[in-house]
Design a protein that fits this description.
Lysozyme-like, 6-stranded mixed beta sheet, disordered N terminus, Amidase/PGRP_sf, zinc ion binding
Length: 196
């Protein structure tokens, strides 16, 4: 191993040790994820984050959230024909963060923005109600963690899925809330502004 590579590895490990997620992260192996059909990588840090809801079932404990993760992955891969589960991270109302495609893999979450953004989706339908506080805290914590790790820029712009597409996602109630969050941007991005 070259000295430069060793130094870069030590610096990366040092940064990771200084960052704390303040949430419990469930790895792909822990929720028994299927192997992706293909993997495309993205460059980080990204300067955009999209918030979604799955518009499927909610889950409130580890067992039911693992089952829901598997249902979502099966739907995305078998019905929609995607390479893998679409989102980078998913959050359950058990307060855990479930790894989807993680930080450096291109997702299938927001058309035209998959290569330049990270997506976090809360499991459930939030048209009529908000995710519980455990889930909301977990979303904020995983984003803070991404900034600390250098995967998301400190001045990132936050959007709801409906900001760039005709969709109800991330649900009326949840969308109203994220518009009050610090990083929410009222200036909508357009696909033509994306380079690469």
């Amino acid at each position: 191993m070259s000295v430069l590579l060793l130094l870069a590895t030590v610096i990366t490990m040092s940064e990771a040790l200084q960052c704390s997620c303040n949430c419990q992260v469930v790895s792909r192996s822990q929720w028994h994820a299927r192997t992706p059909k293909e993997i495309d990588y993205i460059s980080t840090p990204v300067n955009m984050v999209f918030i979604h809801h799955t518009s499927m079932d909610s889950c409130f404990n580890l067992t039911s959230c693992i089952e829901e993760m598997q249902k979502i992955q099966d739907f995305h891969m078998d019905t929609r024909g995607w390479f893998d589960i679409g989102y980078n991270f998913l959050v359950g109302e058990d307060g855990r963060v479930y790894v989807g495609r993680s930080w450096n893999r291109e997702g299938a979450h927001t058309l035209h923005f998959n290569r330049v953004a990270i997506a976090v989706s809360v499991m459930g339908d939030f048209m009529q109600r908000l995710p519980n506080n455990l889930a909301l805290d977990a979303v904020k914590n995983i984003l803070d963690y991404g900034v600390c790790l250098g995967k998301i820029t400190p001045n990132y712009r936050l959007y709801g899925h409906r900001d760039v597409r005709e969709t109800s996602c991330p649900g009326d109630k949840f969308y109203q809330l994220i518009q009050t969050w610090k990083h929410y941007s009222h200036t909508k991005p357009s696909p033509s502004s994306i380079i690469g």
